[in-house]
Amino acid sequence: MSLDELKSALPDYAKDLKLNLGSVIGNSELPQQQLWGTVLACAIASRSARVLRELEPEARENLTPEAYTAAKSAAAIMAMNNVFYRTRHLLSDPEYGTLRAGLRMNVIGNPGVEKVDFELWSLAVSAVNGCGQCLDSHEQVLRKAGVDRETVQEAFKIAAVITAVGTTLDAEAVLAEQLSV
């Protein structure tokens, strides 16, 4: 129901997003936990209240309480790590890379779900947040664990579509407000 509401809310010019949203969620070959954990983590990372409101109930229905919490944890820890590591990478002084991070990241070592699932969600959030260093790190862990490229790509396809849907719907809300003024 929520997915259908999101699709119907998209304007005509975003027909491709409507089709892609139905495809990446409705036709995904990911197992339910990986799919809905990715959807929830990306909905949070998209920063779109509308997307999160519409997708969270279905994610909650399709995830165990532990997986639900872990997906939210992936979004939270990556919000911090993506800013930190992206900034460290973008600074022209390489000496920042030699300094101790000094940030608590305990959830990465004990996420409460299979490590592969948490890594997949972390990779998807890192795609939303544009952190190349985190993308490389999580992709390497996934590949070493035997996850194929198609599965990795599925996660960042979900991230791309959910982020685009959020951007489009949030822009439409602002434009509608301006028209009513």
TrEMBL record:
Gene3D superfamilies: AhpD-like (1.20.1290.10). It catalyses: N(6)-[(R)-dihydrolipoyl]-L-lysyl-[lipoyl-carrier protein] + a hydroperoxide = N(6)-[(R)-lipoyl]-L-lysyl-[lipoyl-carrier protein] + an alcohol + H2O. It comes from the Bacteria. Disulfide bonds join 131-134. SUPFAM superfamilies: AhpD-like. Keywords: Antioxidant, Disulfide bond, Oxidoreductase, Peroxidase, Redox-active center. One of its GO terms (molecular function) is hydroperoxide reductase activity. Its EC number is 1.11.1.28. Pfam families: CMD (PF02627). One of its GO terms (biological process) is cell redox homeostasis. Coiled coil: none annotated. The active site is at 131 (proton donor), 134 (cysteine sulfenic acid (-soh) intermediate). Residues 94-176 form the Carboxymuconolactone decarboxylase-like domain. Belongs to the AhpD family. Homotrimer. Antioxidant protein with alkyl hydroperoxidase activity. Required for the reduction of the AhpC active site cysteine residues and for the regeneration of the AhpC enzyme activity. NCBIfam families: ahpD, ahpD_dom. This is Alkyl hydroperoxide reductase AhpD. The gene is ahpD.
